[in-house]
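Weekly structure sync, notes
Attendees: PL (lead), two postdocs, one rotation student
Agenda item 3: pending single-chain targets
PL asked that the sequence for the first pending target be pasted directly into the notes so everyone works from the same version. It is reproduced below exactly as submitted, 439 residues in total.
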Amino acid sequence: MIKSFRLASLALCFAALFSSCNEEGSLGLDLLPNVDGIGVFRLDTFTVATYTVDEDSVESQFPSRKAFGMINDPIFGKAEAVTYFQTLLTTENVDLGANVTIDSLILSLAIDNYMGDTTMPVTIHIYELDESMDVDSNYFTNRRLAVKPTPLVSYSYLPRPKSRVSANEPLLAGGDTIIEYQPVIRIPLGGDLAQRILAASGTADLANNDNFLNFFKGFAVSAEVPGGQPGIMLNIIPRSVLNGMILYYHNDTTRRRFDMVSRGDIAYFNSFSFDYTGTALATAIGNTSPLIEENYVQAGTGVKIRIDFPHLKKLIENFDVAINKADLVFTLIPGSNTDLAPVPNSMFLLPADSLNTNLPNVMPDLLERYYDGTFKDGTYTFGITRYVQQLLKSTEPDYGLRLIPLNTVSTVNRAIIASSNHTNPLYRPKLILTFTKLK
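Predicted structure, written out during the meeting:
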């Protein structure tokens, strides 16, 4: 089942119960004193059951960053990302003039961020799309577009994602100058495409962008590394004058450039795929064994964590309560994140339905300042006061919450979270309630 929701609306193995809550006494209500003497109680012994589940495809058009690359993770397996995007003319009725000689055709990609290894080369594959994209269409993270069978180029790149790049650029008044750009990848595309563009000069193909997108539908960019290498995932600024094709040429003795850029009203999206074969994660997905001590979550619509509160409604069996504060805390397994495999800076919680589909519009705390979800001091903490209050009052079936990385269609950042079965009780997920007991 494909879940259809906009990213703007977003802003896991079943674990055995780590505390029994069959009686009011086991909840601690008969043991905890009033917090302030006026009927306010604090409770942190509720069962929080967690396990790892697959994430489904989500809408991926217009991500905050384009993403491409390959990561080989010993725990999470292989993750791959392909980014698809269009380029546009910067002016209409393009005519390169007479006596044109092509110097080079460059694809420029402006790097914004990365994860992975920068010490080993990666092979970047540049394909020409053989299928049109539509800026008004929905594209999902499992979508693959048709490409021409032979790549325009397969380019060996030693990642330098923080280094500025110099290029010799022609001046409008004539002559050249060296310009130092922010970190970019500049990939020569070869002569065939350059000659096609030259042949289109002065024709209807370069008259406007509608015609140009029929002439050249866009790019698919991927990368691969040998199986024994950690690999790298690169993030590219989605719209920039530094993204796109640059045709360098000269008329007689004057050197010039013609830009076809990836900015403005373009279609673009990221597509992800995962292979968990032989990993600890593969064993954990859907596993309800009480032996599973770790839960897994990964961006790129990899995996997510399901959270259930199976005994929460026992709180209101004998009296009503008003929830003053509810915090849900998850702890990262110490030492599980590295520079090559960073954790998400932020995550969020969403309720789900019976089909494991995220329901982004029914989390009442999502836009509250106390909601949080940022990674701090080894934990993710969420304020879910309104959610708990509504859950206690609801008569509808409850299918739990899902823990998901915030930037889930631009990265493959991942985290290993202690499950409710972890041998160290301090690491287990915890629901902390402060409530007023009503008569």
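Discussion points:
- The longest helix spans residues 191-200.
- The chain has five helices and 25 strands.
Action: rotation student to compare against the earlier draft before next sync.
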